[in-house]
Amino acid sequence: LGRVDAEGHAWGALDALRADPSRWGGRPVFLYGFDDLTPAQLDAVETLVRACGAPVTVSLTYEPGRAAFADRAATVELLRPLAEATGEVRELPERAEHYAPAARPALHHLERQLFDGSSERATPNGAVRLLEAGGERAEAELIGAALLELVRQGADAADIAVLVRAPEQAPLLAQVLEGYGLPVERVERFGLDRTRLGAGMLAFGRAALPGGTATDVLTWLRTPGKVAEAARVDALEARVRRKELTTAGEALRAWGAETPELDAAREATSVEAFLGVLEAELQAIWTAPHRRAGAVLGPEAHADARVAAEVRAACAELRALAAADPGLVGGAAGALEALADVEVRQGGARGTGVLLADPLAVRARRFRAVVVCGLQDGAFPRGPVPEPFLDDGDRRALATATGITLPLHEDVLARERFLFYSAVSRASEVLFLSFRASDEEGEPQLRSPFVDDVRDLFTEDLWRARGRRLLAEVTWPAAQAPTPLELRRSQAAAAAGGEGVPLAAPRSDAVRRVLADREVESARGLEAFAACGVRWLVERVLKPGRIDPDPEPMARGSLAHAVLERTLRGLKDHTGSARLTSGSLEAARGELRAAIGELGASRAGARAKAALRALEVDLGRWLEAECTTGPGFEPQLLEWSFGGEHDAHGTLDLGPIRVSGRVDRVDVGPGGEALVRDYKNSKGYPRATWAEDGHLQAALYAIAVRDVLGLKPAGAVYQPLRGKDLRPRGAAVAGDAATGLVDNDVVEAGEWEALLDTLAGEASDAAQRMRAAEIRPCPERCSPVGCAYPGICRAGEPQR
């Protein structure tokens, strides 16, 4: 069309300077606030230096050899020849004066050592703090309470930044912070459909077109400024829901009132006319509350005004495109789709309150307090996104064959590290790092590895002093309530006897008969019941069907079990023995790679490949540790199951109940002693906690090995497959079976037998309570993140 976009104007300006360098006039240039330069910006530097002869100073954050700056090395090295030829490369020394004196040791230590590791662990001293939450709402409330305390201590709200990587988390954060009385400044850009006025206008357009829905009509009518009496729209929604109306026509007939604006949109004979109706409706809606009022626009009205201005500009461009070629717009539906992609700036004037922004927006600013929230694995750092046209492999091949270099898209870790470094180095007094241990449904979530990178730089005080708010904590404890409203809610909950009446034991005779008739229970089920009867009831009796894929930790665990079984079987097939010793390490590694390739062949996509690679690395570390320090017993039984309908071996008889199970591994030593191994994702359970915390599974497996197989068990251990400490935890009799165990887990033969008897008694007691329907909530033992089913259990969380 002969039009030039913003990037085209930039390249055109550079072409003009190269054609006539004198037009620049030799003025000096200082580039500040950039952490990287685009191709056009790099070209501008070179043009100004080589063609125009202008003195150019470029300030970049970079230190050779530091992992946090690895992604910036290419840009610095591209600029270095220009600087060395015409000027100088000056490295400024590190400074710490911008940190508050009390916070300086901790924050400066973090800035200097992040991602590079340090043998010295600093004391956080309140300058670096962790916040752990159960769900997004709890995370927002934790942040709100922490910031409210800072403001009450004298901090200015405008000197606080909350950095959000996921834009969808920002509205909830803003709502909670404003509810706590903290003013919020948001300077972000959102799609038109995520603004209240834009969503209403788009719904109006869709309702006028074929395929419009009842939801479109409701969204349009609920747009602030459209209908003065909200109760009328409430009544319409009730009719739509009760009568299950689905189309826009059905909803409009139920509305009953005339809608001339929709009629005008339907009757528009061209894209230009349709856009004119959209603009008129948009203007009518947002200006209606202000007519004849002489109103001074508040923040929400200012946002609507910006939406209206952006829509007018976009409609003007669409009209120009349609005038040049109607096919470029694609009719009224195409125009609506294009408008939905328009981005609109949201936020008030700078310095009005707590800044809620993306980390990219604050790289050149400093704040008294900074909160980096949403630190979840896959969110920050973000995972690699495959390039649909040329993936990184194609780009490397292209560079090798032709010399054409294109930026890599999938190798994002270095970029994410620099962004995290930039975010955590913005605070001068206190830095909060916030993550979620579970989602709103209670499913566990993995925190960002960046959190652990920070933990490695500080003493354990950082972790012990973390703020926590779990999923089941609907109200604050009265002593911690951050606002008068939260205090009243806490007092009301206490006056009502808590946040709900805990689930009582079943009273129905039919239900009690069902439980009494359970003659066989799995070892895992008995352990679950001993920990929390309510969780056992949900997961082992009710067994609600899952409608979404298994969480990543569960999927990883299943795959790890299958890979290890395939690895050990392959090792035995090819060498005659599955024993893991220093002599069989290389063969075991080969079998591991083969198992990963075979079992991971169906897992496609960059994220799945990254997960497979991570699993291979973790299991490779475990193999090396096992071959080096393990007892070297022969893995005789892999994934041995007993007590099932099709199993070769029967159940374990405990008296009140018969037990079934599936044992990951049974290893047998030279003297015939057996060692039971149960794989865990990242954590084992020491012997001292078995009885106290209800860890019955490994002990029941050891008893089954003795009573069902006729072997002599010499120990049972939980084997972590990832993490820094890969030592198995459990119990084993002093001797070969205890090789590689922590000293506290090594017992004498008499202690071992007594431990098995004790836990068999615990399991028998649990079985008797189970069959007697004595189901009691135990939120303190339910799961690592607290109560797993707070909506069913209603027992609340223990005070910790």
Strands, helices and their partners?
Layout: H1 6-19, E1 29-31, H2 39-51, E2 56-58, H3 73-86, H4 104-113, E3 128-134, H5 136-152, E4 160-164, H6 170-179, E5 184-186, E6 188-191, H7 196-208, H8 214-221, H9 230-243, H10 248-255, H11 260-267, H12 271-287, H13 299-324, H14 331-340, E7 343-346, E8 354-357, E9 367-373, H15 392-402, H16 413-424, E10 427-438, H17 449-455, H18 461-464, E11 467-469, H19 484-495, H20 509-516, E12 520-522, H21 523-531, H22 533-542, H23 552-575, H24 585-599, H25 606-629, E13 634-642, E14 652-653, E15 658-668, E16 673-680, H26 690-693, H27 697-707, E17 712-720, E18 729-733, E19 746-747, H28 749-771, H29 779-782, H30 790-793
Helix pairs in contact: 1-2, 2-3, 5-6, 7-8, 7-11, 7-12, 7-14, 8-10, 9-10, 11-12, 12-13, 21-22, 21-28, 23-24, 24-25, 27-28
Description of the structure:
- The chain has 800 residues and is α/β, with parallel strands linked by helices.
- Helix content is 46%, strand content 13%.
- It has 30 helices and 19 strands.
- Strands 12, 13, 14, 15, 16, 17, 18 and 19 form an 8-stranded mixed beta sheet that branches.
- Strand 15 (658-668) and strand 16 form a beta hairpin.
- The longest helix is centred in the middle third of the chain and has 26 residues, at 299-324.
- The protein is globular and about 90 Å long.
